[in-house]
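To whoever is on call:

I kicked off a structure prediction for a single chain this morning and the downstream step that reads the tokens threw a length-mismatch warning. I double-checked the sequence; it's 400 residues and nothing unusual in it as far as I can see. Pasting both halves so you can look.
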Amino acid sequence: MYLTKEEERMLDGSYGNVVARCMKLLVKLGEKFNAERMVKIGSAQIAGVSYKNIGDPGLEFLEGFAKEGARVKVPAFMNPAGMPFNGWKELGFSEEFAEKQTRIVEAFRAMGVVIISTCTPYLAGLLPRYREHIAWSESSAVAFANSVIGARTNREGGPSALAAAITGRTPMYGLHLEENRSPTFLVEVKAKLRDIADFGALGYIVGKVMGKGIPYFKGMSTSSCDEDTLKALGASLAAYGAVALFHIEGITPEAENASKNLKDVEDKLKVDNDDIRVAYDEMCSAVDDVDVIAVGCPHASIAEIQNLISILNGKRSRVPIWVFTSEAVKRIAERAGYLEKLEKLNVKIIADTCPVVAPLEELGIKKMAVNSAKAAFYLPNTNSQVVFYDKLENIIKRFC
């Protein structure tokens, strides 16, 4: 790999041992994927935050790194933690878990990471520019940044995202290169998609069929493709097919240019209303009741919170509803008076964590209703949950 003089100094230890270790990791990563050089990044989003996921070894590593003087060079946010930073006790999290999780967060704070834990950093103040190079690790955020914003990032692991944040660099390979952003799969959408859960079902179908690759969607209505439905589509594609970039004709910023390469695409798929119905059935377990209704995977926007208020229409839910979001969006909801209103309806807005990385089994939760295809994928595997999947409006009618 070609390194600039400054990057060479990072590698040889001129900027300290921590920076040298980070640059060594990035060089090895770049060599593995035949990167010719590094590229400067505008921001980082770091995974490996939940104590449930990284345990004591991860905690010890982060604390050791912070004590050695690790400091980030670019704005960096954290992925969701294993619990909310406030109100964790009333939700049933143990003192032991809270103590370990807090130490993880404090280690990141010492490194200069912004203490916002979210899988939707673009809704919380970390919004990349079009074509800006970044190093993000959360799969749904990567898909959104690449596809909807048109930024440039591979799906980083926790260590490589942290190393990129500390050096301000990432290897120039994969989706950082223009030639690797062309479509590899054509999807003709004949189904009528109106709801977040519909887009999740589409991602389920396409992700399972194509696996890796870059889908190009034709036939989708511009009126139904908003920030939240595209967020849901990207999250589902990433969960079921490891997709980090998609194009939608007439909607996403690179679609027009990408369409020039469709003549080279051989793999094609048509999705109609029947396919969407089958996807719903396959993602949904038959249950008479649930312990919690979960909204916000990826983290909910203020529009999703407003939609929930509209659906409830003043009716108090029989089943607790947990809305997962960032602290930034929660503050907006609080200023709008939504928190107090929702508390009366048995709804809690929970910041900093999500159902996928929280220890739900320790909280006594076994069955959840979700309108998130990503949650429907991960919850049975990470938290042994039985999952009911449907549109939020249908979930509210059924269980509230």
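Update from on-call: the warning came from a stale cache, not from the record. Cleared it. Sanity check on the structure: The radius of gyration is 21 Å.
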